[in-house]
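One record is kept unedited as follows:
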Amino acid sequence: MIYQKLILPNLPKITFAFLVGMAIVPSDLHAQRVQGGSVLASDAVIHRAGLMVEWSSQAPVGASNQLVDWELMIDENQATTTVEVRSGNRREVISEYDRNALGELLGVAGAEELGQARREHMLAELAARGKKDVEVTLQTFQQPKAILFLLSDSGDVTALDANTGKTQWLSRVGAGSSEGIGLGASENYVAVVRGSVLHCLEASTGKELWSKKCKYAVGSSPAVTEKHIMVPLTDGRLELFPLESQGLGSHALMALGEGTAQPLVTASSVSWPTMRGELNVMMRNGNTHAISYRLRADDAIVSEATSDGENLYVGSLDGFLYAIDEDRGSVNWAISLGVGISASPVPLGKFVYAISGDDELYKVMAETGEPAPGWDKPLEKVKRYVGASEQNLYLMDSQGALVVVDRDSRSIVNRIAVGQIDLVLNNFKSDRLYIASKSGVVQCVREVTSERPFFHDDEIVARTEKLSSNEGSGSKNGSGSKDGSSSKQDLGSKQGSSNSNPFADSGDENPFGSGGDDPFGGSATKDQGSATKDQGSGTKDEGSGTKDNGSGTKDEGSGTKGQDEDPFGGSSEDPFGGASDDDDPFG
């Protein structure tokens, strides 16, 4: 299962008006399409960049709501049957998850039957216009199930089929004036936090199953695994609600600093960051009562970590981009981008992309952290990542234009002005671009030639298979690559020059504008020592201690992390860093 989160910079207001009560599917919303000038990007404009609008949908709009969160759930274990009816440039797509006028799912047979009816209707229309020789094709194919969930601050939840844009269900949770905080989703459940109350919905229908009050104020959006719903709290803890007991008997993992982002759930771990600059990691090995290890940066971590199945990647406001061996907990590499990082890194294939606080895009090797070939200098004036295909990157520049960049050569393929795009869902998993406006318009954009989604996991699989065949021995090498049979040995320190800037000026022209001074000012190497496993972390109120304020400092003159520090804080100090022996930060 793949879950992808929306990044909401400068949260705009998007309004919704839903019927109050249980989840319903109004027939007049079943096949919504946006008409005329309400679209964000028209085919006529974006076609020049090789793009087209796959679908457009208009969310019901009211006067008092705003969108606070949305999330893309792709269930790669469940195929969706889709029927395509095509005549020339005219194309209609019908999914088995579409609903009829009564709100009932079509199913595979219903989708095929409707597709055949639409084909006959098209043929009749063409014949009536005297075009009897035009071919109308009917094709059935399968792709992973993909649902886009949206949440307004008044508790309204919408589920859209991310492949077709059609509404699956609408629901409202909670009551009164409690603000909607965020949502998380899995293939079976949708978790919604409104105020300090967690609501669990059935993902297929939107029906509310149960609700529970959190132990403390909620810091960010929840995440869902097959066993728990996990909610970050403002005191740093992560509260876990068991699904099998409908949330009864929740417990909390201890950490310090306000939770700043939705937890990242992978096949191996759950991780969440805090304002104290800690990335807390719990391994999913059956023990959900202890933090396995934590990364400690010199400043706050405000964005969700990402993963390629080998490493966890996270950026900090201390300016460093970190790659952590997910299984071992050791830092494979850490490089300085010179300015704080507030956006999640983007792992694609064997590379990682990161945007610094001064709007520069970096591309580095996932194994080593070294600049990718041809990317010795960053691209300037990059405001946010929108998406990527197998060949191109899609970025928003500082003027709000959509910029198309070749992933290998870093040359600008195209730059086009589009409509007012207020929201971008950072889709790290497929080549579909999801955008939205303040008026409630949601669009899916794709490359003209990409009629079937391209999944970036395929790049990672190819990379892993290649590494496995090259290594043969099954051991993990110093660059961070690993095959399935590698042993869990401590890598120790990674060798590297402490005086070399990995992004030294190569003299190449920056296609986004003239370059400036080197933002690094010296070394970007960080101590590569292994992490100290946190044996003392667990449930609430296990005591606090003092933190060595002298450790973990950054050399401001060179931009280099101290070579003698342990980025995980060492094993001798209390990992929670309490203010004093008498002051328990958890109450």
Q: What stands out?
A: Residues 107-128 form the longest helix (22 residues). Residues 6-39, 461-502, 504-587 have pLDDT under 50 and may be disordered. The first strand starts at residue 2 and ends at 7.
